[in-house]
Design goal:
two-stranded antiparallel ribbon; 30% helix; ten-stranded mixed β-sheet; single chain
Length: 394
Amino acid sequence: MTSTEPDPGQVAVVAFAQSRHARATEGLSEVEMLLPVLRDVLGQTGLSTGQIDFTCSGSSDYLAGRPFSFTMALDGVGAWPPIAESHVETDGAWALYEAWVKLLTGEAETALVYSYGKSSAGDLPEVLTRQLDPYYLAPLWPDSVSLAALQARALLDAEATSERELAGIAARSRAAAADNPHAQVRGTSPDAATLLADAYVTQPLRRHDLPPVSDGAAAVVLATGRTARRLTSRPAWIRGMDHRIEAHSPGARDLTRSPSTRLAAEHAGLFDPGAPPVDVAELHAPFTAQEVVLRDALRLGEGTAVNPSGGPLTANPVMAAGLIRIGEAAARIARGEARRAVAHATSGPCLQQNLVAVLESDGPAENGSAAGGSAEDGLVKDGSVEDGQGGEGV
């Protein structure tokens, strides 16, 4: 699993593109938001849609407000000549998992994976209540911020973190996003002490503990073995990937821990004996307290740069934020800034379902640090959706 020799049966990320995430993309349909990103990611490989063996997408009808909304997004891909296509009603990270399995079976050599979300179209915290148990919990309408506040309170009561540490996570994430042209919340960040002076949104969470409401899209191209080597000089090989789920009810779980993340990481090979250290971790932690849980579950030490792109605290397009974590991790490897990276995606309330992917290069890191930003070179490109400043927490 940790061999650096590219096995023809292995799969790599060979291209990644994302939009400039914004608070709202008024006047743009999902197709119009997605099309520049798809054009960009295919342009990086020189492939046309007709040369892609398999296409898989991730999105949510609840965000769009209409059934089978993903079929309209296919206009951005082009369904003629006929294509082999699939869709998952969740974050694009799970679409990437489906494509990865398809390539490992030998049924395809290349795959296009994309996802998108216009979170601004409705009241996102209330929309996300549709993820809850429909008989006992959903009728109470507990919004996503309130549930995250319960998780944060559990961590504080267990003395697993402090409000100052959570403010520090927010300040670090914003500082990391300062050089990321795709981030929605970027620029000079107040320090933790200044952030702590803000009023609570839902105790114990303040505005900085929440992700912004974001519209955005992302796309990745996967390829196997020699094809991956032909399409890019430094593939980001997926050495392992797995996803697991917790009990549906948050009341049936210990919210201070994430055993599903730990189990997925074990099966993905993150803790394999003799494996190189993890240089970069891109964690899909929309709330500051969730990063504390994930760092523990993934056994991340001080030597790992966590969310050097700024993470979902600086741009959180629902249904695309998890796929972006995989793309950002792959981009660090492609630029020679990391040898080994872990990417995480989540879905559902309070880290209910979790996916972990381990990515590696063929050799050691070459140039520079993974400390922050998201450069315009390497695999990361600008999908040219209008940029947004600031943001409101969900």
